Amino acid sequence: MAEVSLVLIDRLLAISRALAGHIDPGTAFRATAIEIGSLIPHDHMDLAVLSHDGRRHACYEAGFHTSWSELAQHPLPTEVSPIRSVLW
Q1: Contact between residue 47 and residue 29 where contact means Cβ atoms under 8 Å apart
Q2: d(CA 54, CA 1)
């Protein structure tokens, strides 16, 4: 088994700790995005979450916000999503 850097393990645990305790998906995503930034520098991140049946999706953003943030409150049918080819 390959050796894993202790720094990497620490960063992965920090991501897990950032997620802990959050009930709101958007808040949880933004908290983890900060920790993910220590591994993968970024200005903006998107997260699309599919409904159980795959027919609707909600989007969350970290960093600057666009109209995609509205999809967290008003999920759209997946079939009209601009990223539907990635979701299916």
Answers
A1: yes
A2: 36
- As a whole number of angstroms, the distance between CA 44 and CA 28 comes to 15
Nearest to 26 by CA among 56, 70, 67, 80: 70
Q: Which two tokens stand for residue 36?
A: 């993910």
Rounded to whole angstroms, the Cα distance separating 72 from 24 reads 10
Helix H or strand E encompassing 56: strand 56-63
pLDDT, block means (10 residues), the chain with 88 residues: 79 90 87 89 85 83 79 77 69
Structure tokens at 22: 């959050």
DSSP secondary structure of 27-39:
HHHHHHHHHHTTT
